[in-house]
Sequence to fold (564 residues):
Amino acid sequence: MPSEEELYQEHILDHYEDPFHRGHLTSATHAHEDKNPLCGDVVRIELELNDDGKIKNVYFDGQGCVISQASASMLIEEMYGKTVDELKSFSAEDMLALYGPRLTPNRQKCCLLSWKVLQSAVHSPVNETED
Amino acid sequence: MTDLATRSIDRTALLPVALRNDFPILSEEVGDHQPLAFLDNAASTQRPRQVIDALSGVYERTYANVHRGIHTLSELSTEQYETARHRVQRLINARQLHEVIFTSGTTASINTVARSWGDANLRAGDEVLLSVMEHHSNLVPWQQTAERTGAVLRHIPLTDDGRLDMEAFERLLTDRTKLVAVTAVSNTLGTINPVAEIIAKAHAAGALVLIDAAQSVPHLAVDVQALDVDFLAFSGHKMLGPSGVGVLYGKEALLDAMPPFLGGGSMINEVKLSSFTPAALPAKFEAGTPPIVPAIGMSAAIDYLQSVGLDAIHRHESELTRYAYDALSQIEGLRILGPAPEHRAGLVSFAFDRIHAHEFAQVLNDQFGVAVRAGHHCTQPLHAHLGIAASTRASFYLYNTLEEVDRLIEGVLAVQRMFAPQGRQRKRRKPDE
Fold:
């Protein structure tokens, strides 16, 4: 059982209070939003993909617990500037490792919400999914 | 005792703490080696030694399938299973023994009515009256029935303090209303609904009433004949019994007229290759091997609850709830969901605008050993109505203590301090735009 010191490490609380690219991207080419049905946490990710398969820009927004929101910030920061292929090969295990502290299965769902949303977002062009 | 508890405590309303010794699990440690304070009783309860012994006693000495063989064990199991039905009959004061149907739980009980009674009786344009505070298990089955039958669902709105708007209820009740299906106690707001008044008014309008009693039968004395309720549903695991068993009570004439829901063994009188005739009540609604051991365990749980006394249990929970409510209501930024203590059963849900329910549940568990529920508690429409995504719920039962409520309050204050904005800055790895 992880203790609070491990679970809510300083860099995690930093991401929670001072997130990377929280907001919206008017130039988004791809976007997806999902929620964790267990607790109602919501994450939306908006991406601008280049023709050469690079993530030119990426933003997230959402509502939820420290783990779901801080992990989203950490993921977005990690993926910014990477290629779509690199994004697709970034596994759930990689996401849990990026987050750091060992999580119980229910809290893993919080941590993996943004990862799932991002994996779907690259397959969701804005003009097809929106409006 | 916490400084926030200003109201004097009526200690005569509390049950003896020694009663906790009957519950082995309460001496477990959780989180960072904290003694367990189990405040998640609205989700499921713990079992006393008497129930655990009853369960292992069946497996060790008397278990076989019921209503099948003529061998000794089948006779013994059948007798114990049918004794459990008697216990339930006495608990809710059903007129007939066969008005008590064992199901797998409240959800299965409500689905049985929605499928069997609903499909046979609802026509396009008929109305089923629910409420905004219902658990998903008393919403989704009716949405499915409405899809099949064309019936229309209406919802009783809530007052600002989280009670049913009874004036709106009367306006919504028309000659189109065929059924009113509402909860006796909200699992999220704690609101005790005026079910006797609802039943009387619904009957006067020619509608039947189903009461979701999952949160009331374990905590309050319920008399189905005095209420004149048509259908009542509840679960064993929320009243010190095992999971996997629940009850559907229905009036004999209604159950008799309803087609069977699940088909299979036990529920038949005679089967031919292309047809069957259904069994009489209660077997008609107990297809397949029933929850034999859970029902026997539930029977032991009823014996235990009645030995303590449901009125005494209710007084105990009311005192803990008032104490928790008074203390929580003085915490700045905390929003208590639902009505004042005099209108509520033994639970308090709350939300903070800044701090998510998960943080409360996590830190309360790890640092204070307090088990609470965080999330939407299977009431998403209610949370949407309240304008929040999630809440934290502390729910009490006969074994909880004032000291546990104190730990809850201490923990809530600690979480508030822990997650207060501190002007933190993320270490810059990449240029922000």
